[in-house]
Amino acid sequence: MPWRKIEPMEQRIEFALKAMGTLNFRALCQEYGISPKTGYKWKERLLRGGLDGMVEESRRPRSSPQQLPEEAVCEIVRLKLAHVAWGPRKIRELYRRRHGEVASESSFKRVLEQVGLTQKRRRRRRGDEAGRLSKGRRAGAPNEVWTVDFKGWWRSWGKRCEPLTVRDEHSRYVLELRAMDNARSESVRRSFERLFERAGLPQAIRSDNGSPFASVHGLLGLSRLSVWWVALGIELERGRPGHPQDNGAHERMHLDISREIEALAQSDQETMDVWRQTFNYERPHESLGMRCPGEIYCASKHKYEGTPEDLEYPQMCSRRVSAQGAIKLDGQVLFLSKALAGWSVGLKPITEQTMEVWFGRLRLGEVDLATSNFFRADIRPKKTAIEPLL
Predict the structure, then answer these.
(1) 314-373, pLDDT tens digit by residue?
(2) 3-state SS, residue 230
(3) Rounded to the nearest 5°, which phi and psi values hold at 228?
(4) 19 or 156: whose pLDDT is higher?
(5) pTM of this prediction?
(6) I need a labelling partner for 378 at 20 to 30 A (CA). Which of 3, 99, 245, 363 fits?
(7) Which distant-in-sequence residues (6+ apart) come within 8 Å of 219 by Cβ?
């Protein structure tokens, strides 16, 4: 408002008092350099509120057309308290599923920030994304790759709890969350037998290099458990030693378990089953277009029919691995791995002096017939370690 360069409050009062008795209102407005609309506003303010009404009022709107009603705010807070680890985007999707129409994501963020139930996410620095798998498959459909690991242990009421976790990489579906009495190979195998009976077999399983999924010093890192997987026709995928980010999505799920189960010092299987049900059928995932894993996952068409008695090698000769992990070839004893004990390996001639040793679809290495030396594929690789059987 173009008042003259004196106190605006004094000018308004002076104008309003003159406006009460003037006959030419427009001329008075021109004298003060304001529009008739502004003049009538200050005249009305003086009549309605006296001198106190001449103070400049805030231009902030008294209400916003996008302001959430009180019941909506309460529902947002209630959903957040029921799912403390979920962010505004997931809470908004859950609200939409239950109530239909929903406010913007920014409105949900604002509500949760105002009540102190969310924090701004730390931006990752460049370089935090480094360390992905340099090779290996990534799932494009359910059951192409399962990921497996043990969640770090905690104690509840004096009892040690270290759950076994299995997850479908494509759908994010948690296939197993099992409180184990121990992490021995036989116990984990029994859990996988029940899982395979329920969900079928995956094409590949990704694990770290720890026991019982792998053996640090064993041939190709094979353990008794992973040998069994190969015998069932399952391919092995492993992260690099010391790089948990190679199985990062699985580790992220473990963080959720830490916040929502371990933090409450819970260790009973019933609690884990409820958490798995919520994760699979209620919790929306941004990477799935805000759908739940249970909306995408389906059981594998490759059914589990039990463990084969042995493996066959068409167009190869075979040898049974002894309990000491060795085979005999032309009277010579060749040590392979104790993890292969009881299984047959295939011998494939390459040259007159060289034979390849295979276990299922895994190339274990080569034998130099002239010297009877065995060269491991993971020490002196010559070809790819994975190849279909002939």
Answers:
(1) 889 999 999 999 999 888 899 999 999 999 999 999 988 999 999 999 999 999 988 888
(2) helix
(3) -60, -40
(4) 19
(5) 0.68
(6) 245
(7) 336, 337, 339, 340, 364, 365, 376, 378
Peptide bond before residue 388 is cis, with ω within 30 degrees of 0? no
Instruction: Count Cα neighbours of 52 within 13 Å in the Cβ-side half-sphere.
Output: 2
Chain centroid offset of residue 345 CA: 38
Please give the Cα distance from 28 to 14 (Å, whole number): 11
Dihedral, CA of residue 58, residue 59, residue 63 and residue 65, to nearest 10: -170
**Using an 8 Å Cβ cutoff, are 282 and 90 in contact?**
no
**Per-residue model confidence (pLDDT) at position 133:** 29
Q: How do residues 120-153 score in pLDDT, each as one tens digit?
A: 665 544 433 333 323 567 788 999 999 999 987 7
| CB distance 167 to 195 below 8 Å | no
* Non-local CB neighbours of 256 within 8 Å, separated by 6+ positions: 85, 279
Task: Enumerate the H helices of the chain as residue ranges.
Answer: 8-21, 25-32, 36-49, 70-82, 88-99, 105-114, 185-199, 224-231, 248-260, 269-281
C-alpha Rg value of the chain to the nearest Å: 35
Q: How confident is the model at residue 301 (pLDDT cuts 50, 70, 90)?
A: very high
Strand partners, 357: 347, 365
Q: Count of CB atoms within 10 A of residue 266's CB?
A: 18
Encoding tokens for residue 79? 């959903």
Evaluate whether 208 touches 215 at the Cβ level (below 8 Å): no
**Alpha carbon distance 32, 13 (integer Å):** 12
CB 250 within 8 Å of CB 149: yes
The stretch 250-276 carries a mean pLDDT of 86
DSSP state of 254: H
Looking at residue 136, its pLDDT comes to: 63
Measured CA to CA, the distance from residue 197 to residue 80 in angstroms comes to 37
In the 8-state DSSP scheme, what is residue 354?
Answer: E
- What is the C-alpha to C-alpha distance for residues 117 and 112, in angstroms, rounded to an integer? 5
Condensed to tens digits (0 to 9), the pLDDT of residues 278-294 reads 999 999 988 888 999 99
Handedness of CA 260, 261, 263, 266 (dihedral sign): positive
